[in-house]
Amino acid sequence: MFAVLVASVIGNALTFFYFEAPVHPEYNLGDSFWYSIISITTIGYGDLSASTVGARIGTVFFIVLVGLVAFTTTAGMLVDWIFDLRMREQNGMATVQSKDHLLIIHFPNETRVRHIVEEFVSDNNHKKVDIVVITDKLQTLPFSHPNVSFVRGSPLEQETYQQAQLSRASKAIILSTDYDDPNSDSVVASVASVINHLSPHVRVVAECLSLSHELLFSNLADVSLVYTIHMANNLLIQETQDPGVTILAQAMTSNKVEGTMASTMVDPPVGERLTYQEVAVKLLSKDINLLGVIRDKKPHFKFGDLFLSPGDLLVYISSHRYTWQGLQEAMG
Fold this sequence. Notes:
This protein is an alpha/beta fold. The protein has three domains: 2-90, Helix Hairpins (Orthogonal Bundle), CATH 1.10.287.70; 102-226, NAD(P)-binding Rossmann-like Domain (Rossmann fold, 3-Layer(aba) Sandwich), CATH 3.40.50; 258-330, Alpha-Beta Plaits (2-Layer Sandwich). It has ten helices and ten strands. The strands form two sheets. It has a six-stranded parallel beta sheet, covered by helices on one side. α4 links the parallel β1 and β2. α1 (2-20) packs across α2 (29-40) and α1 (2-20) runs antiparallel to α3 (53-90). The chain is elongated, with a radius of gyration of 31 Å.
C-alpha cells in the first residue's frame, strides 16, 4: 500500500507538471510535488491548483480515486504499528534500543526500584542514561519514567538479555528477589554468573543478604557485593551509639546532595612519591575529603605510612567525581 501511495504522489506530480507547465511557466517540478503532497494529505493550502483539463483528470485519478485510499490506509497501518509497539514496550515484549545503559534485575517492590532509578539519574553524569528493568514477575511496569524501559522475561535466560541489549549495556544492578526469600542470594549469584558469561565487560553490582553467602560469588570476576541488610543494621547500631551519624551517611551516599561519596582508581604513572597523608592534605585544600584507600580489596584509613600506588582506589567526598588526572591536577 505504501508503494501505491508513492506512485500516486509521483504520478500526480508528473501529470500536473506536464499539463500545467506550458500554461504556467513559473511552475517547476518541485511545485508539482508540493501540489501533489498537499492534495493527497487533504491539507490544500490553495497556493497551487489544477487549471487544465489534463491536470484535473490526473488529480481525480491519482489523488481522489487512488491516493486518498492509499493515504488513509497507510496512515491507519502506521498508527496501528505505533500502538502495537507501544503496547509491546509497556508489556515488556519489545527489544530495547539503548546503549551504555544500566540494567536493574528483579523487582522486589516499586518503592525500591523507583528510588534506585531516581537516585541514579540525579547524578549529572547519568541524567541521560537509559535504564532497563528486567523481571518475570510483572505484566507491566507500575510506574513511568522517561529513562526507563521494561523487559519481561526470566533473568536466567539468554533470550531475555538479547531483548535487553546486554551486549551494549555498561552496568547492571542485581537486586534481591525478596528480603524474606532464603534462596535470594543463590538466585542473585546465578544471574550474576549468566551476565558474566554473556557479557564480561558489564560491571555488576549484586545485592547479597548474608555475609556467609559470599562464597556463591567467589568465581565471578568484577562483581561488587553490597550487603544491604548488614550495612543497615550497622548503621542502626552506629546511630544508637553516635547520634547524627546517619545524617552524614545519608548525605554522603546520595547523588541529590552536594558532597557525595565517590571513588577514583590510581592510574600509572603516579609521579611524585607521596604518602596518602600528604595526598589528603593537598586534596582537602580543594574541598576533596579523602576518606580511605582500598588496596587489594582491603580498606585503609591510616595514611601516614601508606604510599600512593597504581591500582589503589581512593574513596572521597566531593561535589564532583574526578578522574585520576583530575585529582592529580587538584593536587597541583
